[in-house]
Amino acid sequence: MLEIAYVDWLELGLRWLHVIAGIAWIGTSFYFIFLDLSLRKHANLPPGVGGESWNVHGGGFYLMRKYVVAPEELPKELHWFKYEAYFTWISGFALLAVIYYWGAESYLIDKEVLDLQPWEAVGISVAFFAGGWLIYDGLCRSPFNSHPLLLSAAVFVLIAFSAYFLTHLFSGRAAFVHVGAMVGSIMVGNVFFIIIPNQKKVVKALIAGEEPDPALGIQGKHRSTHNNYLTLPVILMMISQHYPMLYDNEHSWLVVTLVLLVGATIRHFFNLMHSGRPIRTLRWQWPTAAVLIVLLIAYLSWRPEDPSLAEREIPSAGDILAISQARCVSCHAERPADPDLDKAPGDVMLETVADLRRHSARVFKQSILSNAMPLGNKTGMTVAERQAWGLWIRSGMPEGEDAKDETAAEATGNEKATGSGAPAAAADPAESLPASAGGTGRPGQLSK
Q1: Which residues contact 248 (CB under 8 A, 6 or more apart)?
Q2: For 421-443, how does the pLDDT look when each residue is reduced to its tens digit (9 = 90+)?
Q3: Which of 93, 237, 376, 434 is the most exposed place for a label (fewest CB within 10 A)?
Q4: Which one, of 81, 86, 93, 193, lies nearest residue 133 by Cα?
Q5: Which among 12, 33, 20, 130 is positioned nearest to 83, based on CA atoms?
Q6: pTM for the whole thing?
Q7: Hey, where are the domains in the chain?
Q8: Are 232 and 263 in contact (CB under 8 A)?
Q9: pLDDT tens-digit profile of 190-232?
Q10: How far apart are CA 408 and CA 318, in angstroms?
């Protein structure tokens, strides 16, 4: 029997295309910034040439020259670099739609952050992309344009404020991806609305026998330089979905600001090096980046101690299994009850105490050190339940008196016999969770 996971194949195809196009775009962007900075002037340059750069690669030597504005005559063959950027954005937006718009209730919306309807969340998402470009483009056309440092600071503030608002609108995971996607949209907007149209105007002037406007090339170079400094932060924000430690914290927008500073500092080092500056004179970039990275790690790793945890009774395996049955097994079961899933994500089952022990490290990272799971907290896992589970893992995952693997396995077997895929009688974990472990000993009384 042929069973095709259409959505998975669609997502895989879009992700593959996005990565391929992104590599091509970033590679050409980095190379041309290097080429521009490595140009050298000498007395024997042809008229109109601002500099040249000798390159060696793949066993061959290449002589690259750049005209100050344009050559006197248009060459017969001219290579354009634009489709890499366009297909990076098209594939990225399509992938965003498949994952975050199609699965808005699971991936985009976190009702503990803001209770949005899917159409509202999708509308806000699209508005942020359009609004981000319009504000950025307005800044570049404002008096800030003649003050590069002030313009850079203004763009930094724009991204920081966007990150702040997005983390108060969407799930942490979606917010980080949206910051990266918004900045990526700004970058492709530079290519589509500024760089390529300006180059076409220059070509049109050459064909008409007119003198091209030098301001067109200068504007294109400014926007290309912006893209260069934004690339490294965008890459990290786009892969952040795999690392909850980055996006799932109280002030994750501050993480975005540190990532921006680290990425821009590293790019600045390479740009200065490409311009011919001796490496020994570039002494501050890497130490600065290292300090910022240490600050980032320290900020994300530090957690205040809760004195009450030391006084709490360690939950039993049965207590934690009850939490798992109420909050986790709708997805993490051999037959998930969640209608959006055909199998447990990552093949992680949490139906028995043995399962809980086997996957304790992953649970600890995803649900204790962060709130990444359950996705969008659809099942309403409380802070008390997370603390109890964490206390059980830190205490060596003791069996306790009221839970045996055999009993859990028997319950799972009965559940499978019914064919329902849902836990047979998932009791409210508050009924069995000791008051000293974060519960109250009374049903329905676990507090957040």
Answers
A1: 172, 173, 370, 371, 372
A2: 444 334 444 444 444 344 444 33
A3: 434
A4: 193
A5: 20
A6: 0.83
A7: 6-301, 313-437
A8: yes
A9: 999 999 999 999 999 999 989 999 999 999 999 999 999 999 9
A10: 9
